[in-house]
Amino acid sequence: MDASVRDAIVREVRDRFSGDSGGHDIEHTFRVVRNAMHISSIEGGDADVIELAALLHDTDDRKLFGDTHGECPFARSVMENRFSDDTIEHVVSIINSVSFKGRDTRAPDTLEGRIVQDADRLDAIGAVGIARAFAYGGSRGRRMYDPSDRPRTDMDAETYFSNTGTTINHFYEKLLLLKDMMNTDTGRSMAERRHTFMESFLDEFYREWDGEQVPKRRSGVLSDVQGK
Ligand code: ADP
Ligand code: NI
Predict the structure, then answer these.
(1) CA angle at 194 for the pair 192 and 199, rounded to the nearest 5°
(2) Which of 62, 64, 101, 132 to mutate to test the pocket of ligand 1 (most atoms within 8 A of CB)?
(3) Ligand 2 geometric centre to CA of 100 (Å)
(4) DSSP sequence for 139-203
(5) Is 60 exceeded by the pLDDT of residue 225?
(6) Atom 23, ligand 1: residue with shortest CA distance
(7) Measured in angstroms, how far is the CA atom of residue 175 from the centroid of ligand 1?
(8) Beta-carbon neighbour count of residue 154 at 10 Å?
(9) Model confidence, pTM
(10) Which DSSP state fits 103?
């Protein structure tokens, strides 16, 4: 991508996110771009489409900007007159398929989409993912944890988006599920360490919450909650 076009797009995306501190700041977008370009350096794909989709993947997010029914007006306005119709349509279809929607989540149709979805997911897990989850929960007045409030798995998209549970529940409802949903080998191997780190974090969290005792029923292992 031409450097001056990239600079102009970055400026427009930065303006779009100014003010958000709930995990969707411009730095999230930059981390997703870096993850995506790294995965693409190994897995291939059209670099312009991947970079654009990573830069624009959250700029029409319904949680932040209201429901536009997948039309992605902001992303389209950014790409208009700069890229071909094919590129624009491909990027819009990726934007519409990357996000997590409970059991209604789907993998994008193309390699480029799968790479961007992996890149976005990687930023939702590990140390940064933990920080983002608590920042998001705090920004919406959610409690960190309530032992009597059990996580819900297998939610459909509407239930997932209207859910107002604790941030610890979000680990079981999304974050710990992502490792096994990765699309590419490169993304999957990047997810492993971040996943293990989240399990250690949860073990430590419960240990401190319970006053140094770790009841087995509340270990950070996902299968424990799913009852497998
Ligand atoms: P992404 O930008 O990765 O597509 P989302 O838009 O779903 O992710 O959410 C932004 C960030 O906030 C992510 O790190 C996500 O895990 C976190 N988040 C979303 N919903 C919740 C929730 N109910 N509780 C805590 N964190 C959440
Ligand atoms: Ni994102």
Answers:
(1) 95
(2) 132
(3) 10
(4) HTT--S--TTS----S--HHHHHH----HHHHHHHTGGGGGGG--SHHHHHHHHHHHHHHHHHHH
(5) no
(6) 170
(7) 9
(8) 10
(9) 0.88
(10) B
The identity of residue 111, as a single letter, is: L
Q: Give the pLDDT confidence score for residue 228 in this predicted structure.
A: 37
Residue 207 C-alpha to ligand 2 middle, in angstroms? 31
CA–centroid distance, 95 to ligand 2, in Å, is: 10
Report pLDDT digits (tens) over 167-186: 999 999 999 999 999 999 99
Contacts of 55 (CB under 8 A, 6+ apart): 9, 10, 13, 29, 33
| Residue 174 phi, psi (nearest 5) | -145, -60
The pair of three-digit structure tokens given for residue 3, joined into one six-digit string: 């450097």
Those residues whose C-beta lies under 8 Å from the C-beta of residue 65, and which sit 6 or more positions away, are: 59, 74
Question: Which pair of structure tokens corresponds to residue 202?
Answer: 């949860």
Q: Are 33 and 51 in contact (CB under 8 A)?
A: yes
Helix segments in the chain, DSSP class H: 3-17, 26-43, 47-56, 62-65, 73-79, 85-98, 111-122, 126-139, 157-162, 167-173, 185-209, 222-226
Position 217 confidence tier, pLDDT thresholds 50, 70, 90: low
The pLDDT value given to residue 65: 87
- Indicate which atom in ligand 1 lies nearest the CA of residue 175: 16
pLDDT over 50 at 227, yes or no: no
Q: Does 218 have pLDDT greater than 60?
A: no
